Amino acid sequence: MESTRVGWLRGITLIYQNSVIRFDPDSTRNNANSFISHCHGDHTAGFNSKGRVSSTIETYDIYVRGHGRSVKNFTPITYDCMQRVEDIEVIPHNAGHMLGSTLFEVRTPESTSVYTGDLNAIDTLTTSSADPVECDTLIIESTYGHPRYVFPPREETYTNIVKWAIRELQSNKIPVFKLYPAGKSQEVIRLFNLFTKIPVVTHHNVTRISEIYVKHGLELKYFDASSEAGEELLCGRACVYVVPMNWSSDQEEQYSKATATGWAVRYRSNNVNTAFPLSSHADFEQLMNFVEQTKAKQVYTVYGFKEVFSDILRHRLDITARPIFPINQKTLGEFSEHKRLVIE
Fold first, then answer.
1. pTM (2 decimals)?
2. Rounded distance, CA 30 to CA 152, Å?
3. Which of 15, 64, 82, 163 is the most buried (most CB within 10 A)?
4. Is residue 146 within 8 Å of residue 286, measured between CB atoms?
5. In this predicted model, what pLDDT tens digit does every residue of 112-155 receive, in sequence order?
6. Do both 172 and 256 map to the same domain?
7. For residue 247, which of 191, 202, 211, 183 has the smallest C-alpha distance?
């Protein structure tokens, strides 16, 4: 009889017999062996929990650089290399979302489960696409799990971003891209590096994360805004400027601001002049294709349009699907959350 249980308790929680593991815990009140899928802030609370925490070294480096502190009880993981927690085997794979992002294949003697974390199923300028992993149970993000969210070809969006920036420069405006410092910023930097001769200037928060990308092998060219070269380029209005989402200036007249997000397919963004539908997540069609290719017998949806997406999966693919459900904490009390992690 199948004894692997999946549900939500301070994160994606999987229980097999007496073993408990947790993915992307959302609370520091967590003593389980935990795995962090990537280094966006809504997935990193587990780095501060008391239990053993594992992620790729890239994710760890971005976290440490961004927060200025190390992580206790940290164990690095490597794509396609298995770790064992009691009778559970955890195999990390590339999730395609950003540097170091991970989807997790979880094997027990009875079944295989996969948790995708945030997922991107096409190649970008900074990441390779995630490959589907065949499994019995799939836990999949559904940020854009609605038929309204189908993104245009990435090459088309790249072209539109460059054309817009050139037009703004010709109008004596500095094109400013308000982006997450980790992930989208590096993709936009690389876009201008590869396809234009326009220099890129970066806000300090973007610079320090970009240094981690360079450390791990991605070629990026940029000038920090506080450097002499960066200040000259900004004064001469001869560059694009990549800044965090919350950036503002008291010299608004010299800037034209843009952002990049999948939500731009349907909504306008506040406090910017334009928005481009560039996302580091899978769109609806990518999500559907990914589910089919895993051949999962049951699917749990998390985040975003989880109810809509699970309904569509049931009707279109005729598989068992539902949003992930809470696990009763009393039930978990019988399990010890302090399990030894063995690296193989």
1. 0.91
2. 40
3. 15
4. no
5. 999 999 999 999 999 999 999 999 999 999 999 999 999 999 99
6. yes
7. 202
Please report, for the domain that includes residue 263, its CATH number: 3.40.50.10890
By DSSP bridging, strand 102-107 and strand 88-94 are antiparallel
> Following DSSP, what letter does each residue of 285-339 receive, concatenated?
HHHHHHHHHHT-SEEEEESSSHHHHHHHIIIII--EEEE--BPPHHHHTTS-S--
Q: Are 53 and 47 in contact (CB under 8 A)?
A: yes
Place of tokens 């054309």: 163
Residues 136, 166, single domain; the answer is: no
pLDDT digits (tens, 9 = 90+) for 53-67: 999 999 999 999 988
Place of tokens 């991605």: 218
Query: Domain total for the chain?
Result: 2
Place of tokens 């088309």: 156
Mapping DSSP to helix (H, G, I), strand (E, B) and coil, where does residue 64 land?
Answer: helix
